[in-house]
Description:
Blueprint: E1 8-9, E2 12-13, E3 15-18, E4 25-28, H1 38-51, E5 53-56, H2 64-71, E6 77-78, E7 93-96, E8 119-126, E9 134-138, H3 139-145, H4 148-155, E10 158-162, H5 167-170, H6 176-186, E11 189-196, E12 198-200, E13 207-209, E14 215-218, H7 223-237, E15 243-246, E16 253-257, E17 261-265, E18 275-281, E19 295-301, H8 306-312, H9 322-328, H10 335-343, H11 348-358
Parallel strand pairs: 4-5
Antiparallel strand pairs: 1-2, 3-4, 5-16, 6-18, 7-18, 8-16, 8-18, 9-15, 9-17, 10-11, 10-14, 11-19, 12-13
Domain TauD/TfdA-like: 16-280
Catalytic activity: 2-ethylhexyl sulfate + 2-oxoglutarate + O2 = 2-ethylhexanal + sulfate + succinate + CO2 + H(+); a primary linear alkyl sulfate ester + 2-oxoglutarate + O2 = an aldehyde + sulfate + succinate + CO2 + H(+)
Pfam family, one: TauD
Amino acid sequence: MSYDNHTQSKNAVLNIKPVTARIGAEIEDIRLSADLSPAEVAAIQNALLKYKVLFFRNQNHLDDAGQETFARLFGELFAHPTVPKRSGTGSIFELDSTHGGRADAWHTDVTFIDAIPKISILRGVTIPETGGDTVWANTAAAYQDLPDGLKSLADHLWALHTNEYDYDAYHSKASEEDIRYHEEVFTSTIYETTHPVVAIHPETGERTLIIGQFTKRLLGLSLSDSNHLYSLLQDRITKLENTVRWRWSAGDVVIWDNRATQHYAVNDYGQQKRVVRRVTLKGEVPISIDGQKSKMKKKEKAILDPAILKQLYPNGPTSPKMDSIFRLYPAVSCFGLRDIILSLKFPSLLRIHQINSAYPRLTTRPRIS
């Protein structure tokens, strides 16, 4: 695909300022809204394909509704598969640092399903005075930089992706609140999907690497070999020369091509509050270089483990996250599991007795570790 006229599309001219030579550009002098002309939308799309990440400052006029109506210019809205959307919105995914929203691991959004979202649009709402930057990496450029032998190997590899992963291993600074959020909400439904490690970008034809935080293992390899090769490829993707870093201000909007990037929210702002809100757009199922499509292998409601419940709530239902459990499991048909959930309302000794008596009646007995 040619980008010769990326600053102009059918008489729409964008003021584009590249941030680095490999990834990222700031677009100035534009007010994002649903009122953009088709030519302006096309120009933004072309710039996105070229630069992978676009930065827009001073979009303070956008609220949740405005962000969603603007996003619809570029495709169909996509709601997160497990995390409830922000109240009053069609699909907005809120990352609030005070409620487990610290995405401090390299990832491409939602690769644990088959049709990976194509575009993400993130808006800065509450930004800490210091820290809280986000970094993006170009997975297409990373592939191009691989030596030929490693390209040939990666071209034919497949990986298993899941949202059920070792949270502590990826998030060394994870708080108790972060871990609870992951246990209760993010993995309320367990997904597993196989993706080609190298996929063909549906619009540019570029080869991109699909790995990151949700990668459980590379298929056809021993666990040791999988871990070593994953680390090698991931190091290539996140090489500093292949990245762009953005210092947020409230009202900033960032759009990225989720099919050709990974990103990382730097967790360096202590107890300061950081809130960003994301809209994602539905994408296509990735296709390998030999034409095979990604496949979802598993989609199952998680079973609450009594041991985990006792660890999470040793003193009864005092956590504000308790509401999320009852929201996620309002119509449980398994009486044993229903009793376990209801037992959280009881005082400590009675609750433990209720859990122990209900556990043998579970239709699928969870593993206690």
